[in-house]
Amino acid sequence: MHLKIRSLVLFFVATVSLHIQAAVLPPPPQLAATAYVLMDASTGDIIAESGADGQFAPASLTKMMTSYIVEHEIAEGNIGFNDLVPISVKAWKTEGSRMFVREGTQVRLEDLLRGVIIQSGNDASVALAEYVAGSEEAFADLMNQHAERLGLKNTQFKNATGLPADGHYSSPRDLALIGRALIQDFPEQYAIYKEKYFTYNDIKQPNRNRLLWRDPTVDGIKTGHTEEAGYCLVSSAVRDDMRLISVVLGTTSDQARAQESQKLLAYGFRFFRNYPLYKAGQELNQPKVWKGLSDSVSLGLAADLSLTIPRGSEDQLAATLDLPEVIEAPLAAGEEVGHLLVTLDGEEVAREPLLALQAVPEAGFVKAIWHSIVLFFQGLFG
After folding, report:
1. Which of 42, 67, 88, 120 is catalytic?
2. Is 171 a catalytic residue?
């Protein structure tokens, strides 16, 4: 039985630079936007936000989930890029931005996906929704199932396009999480999001994301606009191996959404960094194991651990291991044994399970009895 908890100071394997003065961190820029979020795509940490969990009309940012589901279905082998997708009357007649597909024709799925991502085609979105799920209504249900699976807390979809509908909403945080899922789950398809033009039916249309022309580090993701939503942009950029995702909602113009997004990205890259701490499977401690064939066990993490921290604050990081006073066999590989706690300037910023990196079978009868006796007397006199 684990009766006591012991805390061990853990020294970072990575070299830490010492600074005489604490890092200077200005507040985030003032944005002319209804709400915004800036997220580190690697860690999921929020660098800056305003109204991050508010429920807003997402307009065509909805299409990020539409394309995510199509890419998911491709990855599952249920559909393919070369599939010919029939264009219904409903898809053809859908109002708003269009790819200009014609009713009664068949269009390659890959072309429709580019029509959604680059041209923000509502007609292409409906055609894909009907092809994947049978109807746009059934596809919306699928969108909500994926939203729940991705951990979205303030999102509900009613259609595949983002056209205004009662009960159709999302939040800046949730939209950043969809963008993160697109980047991490389907990196091959994500390259489409930085394409500047797409031509279909001899109609060449530009990607509406102005940042693709202004900033070579930007490679996505999606614009949106309706009267209710205002001008919106989810963008992502990579600099010095750090990827940020910016979500800006409710600006007043195409120019403004690009400008405000640039401010947010510039702030994140200038004042924050992604700091790697430990690798998955790296041995962080090797405590004693009682009643086991082995007298110790290596402990580590299931996944790489990085943190998003202000530049210059590395020396304020500290890590401790919270472990049971007594660890007894048997232990299975991957079994949780304790926790790794990381603080920044005394504030907890990460708490991760510590796992046994290998199994420790139970010892034979004689060793187990002997260890039981030792533990008994340690309990009496310890």
Report:
1. 120
2. no
